[in-house]
Amino acid sequence: LQKAAQNLKPVVPIKFHISSRTDSGVHALCNSAHLDIQRAPGKPAFQERELIRGLNHHLKPEPIRILSAYRVTNNFHARFSALSRTYIYRLLMGCTHHSEIPVFERDLCWAPAGGYLNVPAMQDAARFLLGTHDFSTFRSLNSETPFRSPVRTILQADVRPSSGFLSHHYEYRGLEFWELKFRSRSFLYRQVRRMVGALVAVGQGKLTPHHIKELLEVKDARAFPPYAMAPPSGLFLKSVEY
């Protein structure tokens, strides 16, 4: 992004401020960022459509595109002005072996071992995650851990059926796509992947829905089951709301 922006010949080097970071292997359907761009004296400020066209021209070789641009006030910040962030996690049920994952879905979903999951149990368990809690058990430890509050408010936690890419072409194979959707102002380090992994463990019968409540109450990252971390490939940042 910054390299593409430098090709627009700004007077001052450009720095993008992204709304949020994700683990390696996680995808973004839509992310947001802000930048300050100053043109040479005498040149008019970029119009939104002009900026979109210019950036996308220089981004051609990259798997990323600018979808929209808006002029904002000087006190706007892509990260700190966000009201909420929405993530979805894509699950594929019905696979008895990883080779059964459709080739176009590889690295874009997670097919947990054992085929099908107990979805009603997962939906019951997800209700325990709603609201304001200390999510210490549901975060991975990193250098920021001592400085960040573990309290977060989950505004949405849903488990719903979904459609796969070209899924109508392989309906006969008995594959089912489901989406887990989470919305909060912010999330802790790897919190979504841990919540997904715990809910899948409920669906597999390794945990009960009430275990989710107990994990929240323990408030200790070391109490989290080591087998219950969801891989990054199924996780998508869907949108950032302002």
Automatic annotation (TrEMBL):
One of its GO terms (molecular function) is tRNA pseudouridine(38-40) synthase activity. Coiled coil: none annotated. Keywords: Isomerase, tRNA processing. It catalyses: uridine(38/39/40) in tRNA = pseudouridine(38/39/40) in tRNA. Residues 125-242 form the Pseudouridine synthase I TruA alpha/beta domain. Substrate binds at residue 87. GO terms for biological process: tRNA pseudouridine synthesis. Pfam families: PseudoU_synth_1. The active site is at 23 (nucleophile). It is an enzyme of class 5 (isomerase). InterPro entries: PsdUridine_synth_cat_dom_sf (IPR020103), PsdUridine_synth_TruA (IPR001406), PsdUridine_synth_TruA_a/b_dom (IPR020097), PsdUridine_synth_TruA_C (IPR020095), TruA/RsuA/RluB/E/F_N (IPR020094). Its EC number is 5.4.99.12. PANTHER family: PSEUDOURIDYLATE SYNTHASE (PTHR11142), TRNA PSEUDOURIDINE SYNTHASE-LIKE 1 (PTHR11142:SF0). Belongs to the tRNA pseudouridine synthase TruA family. This is tRNA pseudouridine synthase.
